[in-house]
Amino acid sequence: MKKIIITAAIVLAILIGCKSKGNSDDSKKLNLAFESKSNSNVTGTATFTEKKGMVTFVAKLTGLKPGIHAIHIHEKSDCTAADGSSAGGHWNPTFKKHGKWGVEEHHKGDIGNFTADKKGNGTITLTTDEWCIGCEDETKNILGKGLIVHQGADDFTSQPAGNAGARVSCSAIIK
Ligand SMILES: [Cu+2]
Ligand SMILES: [Zn+2]
Question: Is residue 35, in this structure, part of any structural domain at all?
């Protein structure tokens, strides 16, 4: 009887050990910082958090002109150019047309528009199972791409990028 209890205790310890390890592997988080581009004063932070196959994106920007601004994931994590052009075009690993997320055909990087208030502050969030942080599926993996905030709004129609104007802030999506 004693032996059975000890065996059961060992099995339980192994199960708990595996479970806690599994949980820590399942939850991934990136903390990113935006840098100003195109002579703007737009800065801010962004996080990507992955839990149970869902990625939640949160960005907080300051220094914007009040009004509507586009934000996208572009194809490169290179923010070196003064005008942000080094980040390339929209991230589009599935070869779709540019458009509005969740409504019609769209790029994997077409996060959309958000509004900056009178003080120039704006936030945007998006939760999706169409992205992952560092998985093998290159149609989902956001690592190695770049976030771009634009001077103007995305019209969701113009190809290939929604005619959103200058790139006013940039952040590499890297660990
Ligand atoms: Cu863009
Ligand atoms: Zn696009």
Answer: yes
* Ligand closest in space to the Cα of 108: 2
| Average of per-residue pLDDT across 13-40 | 72
Q: Phi and psi (nearest 5°) for 142?
A: -85, -15
Residue 47's domain is classified under what CATH number?
Answer: 2.60.40.200
Alpha carbon of 113 to ligand 2 centroid (Å): 12
Task: Say how many residues make up the chain.
Answer: 175
Q: Which domain holds residue 90?
A: 28-173
* 6 in any annotated domain: no
Q: How remote is the CA of residue 161 from the centroid of ligand 2, in Å?
A: 5
The helix (run of H) or strand (run of E) holding residue 106 is: none
Q: What is the pLDDT of residues 103-125, one digit of tens each?
A: 999 999 999 999 999 999 999 99
How many domains does the chain divide into? 1
Order across the sheet with 54-62: list the strands.
Answer: 112-116, 67-74, 145-150, 167-173, 28-36, 43-51, 54-62, 122-128
Quick one: tokens of 164?
């959103």
Distance 76 CA to ligand 1 centre (A): 11
**What predicted TM-score, i.e. pTM, was given to this entire model?**
0.85
Instruction: Specify if 60 maps to a domain.
Output: yes
Question: Does the pLDDT value for residue 161 go beyond 80?
Answer: yes
Task: Let me know if residue 19 belongs to a domain.
Answer: no
